[in-house]
Design a protein that fits this description.
This protein is an alpha+beta fold. It has 10 helices and 24 strands. The protein folds into 2 domains: 180 residues, no CATH class; 188 residues, no CATH class.
Length: 425
Amino acid sequence: METSEVEKFNIKNFLSTKSAAAIIASTVAVVGVGAMATSSSIASGDKVMLGVRSEGQPIGGLNKIDAEKFFTNVAAQKMHKLTFRYEGEEFIITPEEINLTAQVDKATQEALSYGRGGSMLGNFNDQIKCLLNGRNVQLAAQYDSTLLDEKLNAIAAQINRDPVNAVCRFSGDVIEKIPGVIGKRLNTQELAENLKTPLTTLNLPTGIIDLKPEEIQPFITTEDISEIDSVLGSFSTYYYPGDRGDNIWLAANSISNKIVKPSWTFSFNDTVGERTWDAGYKVAGVIINGRPAEDYGGGVCQVSSTLYNAVLLAGLTPTERTPHFYQSTYVAPGRDATVADGYLDFKFRNDFPHNVYLIAEAYGSTLSVYVLGTKADLGGADIAIEREGSDMSPSIYRVWYSGNDVIRSEFLHTDVYETPKPRQD
C-alpha cells in the first residue's frame, strides 16, 4: 500500500521552509502589537506592574495608596526596640530614640517605577521581565547615627571599667597581695558598624543582643605578683619636712608600686618624670655645677639614692649611676646616686628569673624603699655593702654572704668627691 502525502509530512522540514518562518513572524508581530498596546495602557496607569514583589509577597496591581499602606504595615511589623544584655542587666534603644524611619515613599516610588518612564518598547520589555523574572522591592530605613552613638556610649559608660593593677602591701614582716582587676571596654564603634545594615534594611535582631566587651588586663596582673614572697632589700633615709620633703614625697610616690620584670631596666627619670612646677614640684636646695643652688625638685636625689641602696641590697644590677659633686648628708660616702632632668639618670636591671616589686614610703621624716621579690632568687645569700678608702675617695663593694662565709665580693665603683664650693647668688 502506498504512503499518503499526510503521512509523509515532517514538522522539522516544514519549520525550515521560508513559508513557515514567514507565518511565525507574522503571528509574533500581531501578538507584539497587541501586547505593546496593553503595555502602553498599563504604563500610563498608577498601579504596580505584575511580577513586582516585596517581603516575599506579590504587590502587582496595587495603586499608590495601597502600596504605601503595604509598606507602612511592613515597617510597623519590622521596627521594634533593640535590647542589649550584659551580666544580667538589659539596655534598650527604641526606634524613636535614634530617629529610625522607614523609607515608605522611596519603596512605593520604586515599586511604581517598573515598566514606566521609558519608550513604549522599553516599557513593554521591562513588564515582560517583571512577569518572567520578577522584581523585588526592599523597604529601607534611615536613622541618626549620632543619636545611636550617644545611646551606645551611655550603655558603655555603665559597662566600662578601668583595669586596676595588682598591688603588694608591706607592713611589718607581712606582705599582703591585692589581686588586680581586669578592665572592660565596650567597642561602641564596632557595635554601631554591625548595626548599620540591620537598621538600614529593617532586619532588626528579634532577640536579645548579648554584649561582649573587650577585657583589658592591668599592667600589673595578679599573676605578676604571685611568686613574690619576701623583701629582698630595703633602705631608709631621713629628711626634714618642708618644700624639700614635699618633693621627696612626690618622687617616692612615683616609683612606688612599680614592677620590674626579668631583663627589664628601670629608669628613675622615665618613671618619675620631669621635676617641674606643673608636676607639683617645689623649689628647694640642689647642686648645680658643684655649687649649692635652688631649683624645682630639690630633694629628689635623696629618693634616687635611697632606691640605689635598696637595689644594691636586693642583688639587682645597677646600669647607670652618678655620684654628687660632694658628699651627701643622708647616705654614706659612695652610696649616693644623683639625678637631673634629661641629664643624669639612675637605672638598674632585674637579672633575676622572677619579678621584683618596688614600694617607696615617705612619712613624717622617714623615706623607705623596699624591693620585694622571690626569696629563692638570692640563693639563701645575705648581701652587705662595704667600703674601702677615705670619705673623699671611697671604693664600694657588694659582698654576698652565706652565714659568715663570703660567697663573692663584687667591686662596684670608686668615687672622688670635691670640696663643696660656696654658693653663688
